[in-house]
């Protein structure tokens, strides 16, 4: 379970990125499956090429930003449906990622990475590494929370809430969409960079189906912790990633076939979407909201 916590905290960076498009922008972005691998591939190639580790990580992040911009441009300027724009970029990235790596798999076991000091000192798989990974996830979450509280962040949120109204207020909704997609895929690529270094390899198939894991993390987290405020929604996305990875680990420990993990992920998303709507607590809350609205209307 400690390993599941480590992986869950690393993937929390990706979950926050998915939260930006899925919840904030209301944009179903499927670029994630490709940009995750792009971040991993770019970082791996740069590290093996002798580039300093931090510059390699930034290179992977920048590659994800570019992927997000491409999806945004296809949607905003070419007027392509959001789903199709993401699919087109994702498909193109498969070939681009192969070009970047030169082959389907790049091992990093003998290369110096961010995790080498932890691995050499026997700290991976301990509470020390969990504390470090939690700090990284918290830092990303705080930065995104602060950004969404800025004037431009509010404009981005307004674009997702009501694009027509935001445009009527003078907001360049096309620009906010492109920026939001760039930021989201940059975080996803950063997660891919970290995961590649953590696992010790970058693989062409490592991002397949990742959007389901990202959605599961966001939906499960917000179903449990709620999303009343921005900080709560960001925290829920990060904690949802940890819970999701914990559930997957429990399923593996129970003896389920690893080949069924994608199916389990899909079922988990369905349950997270439907169960809260059917729960008595949800109906009670809705009833309370209606009663409060009626009472306030009567008072007026």
Automatic annotation (TrEMBL):
UniProtKB keywords: Cell membrane, Membrane, Transmembrane, Transmembrane helix
GO molecular function: transmembrane transporter activity
Localization: Cell membrane
GO annotations of cellular component type: plasma membrane
Phylogenetic classification of the source organism: Bacteria, Bacillati, Actinomycetota, Actinomycetes, Propionibacteriales
Highest taxon listed in the record's lineage: Bacteria
Pfam families (UniProt xref): BPD_transp_2 (PF02653)
Keyword Transmembrane: yes
Species annotation: Tessaracoccus oleiagri
Protein name: Putative ABC transport system permease protein
Membrane topology: Multi-pass membrane protein
TM helices/strands, residue ranges: 7-25, 45-71, 83-102, 122-148, 178-198, 204-226, 233-251, 263-281
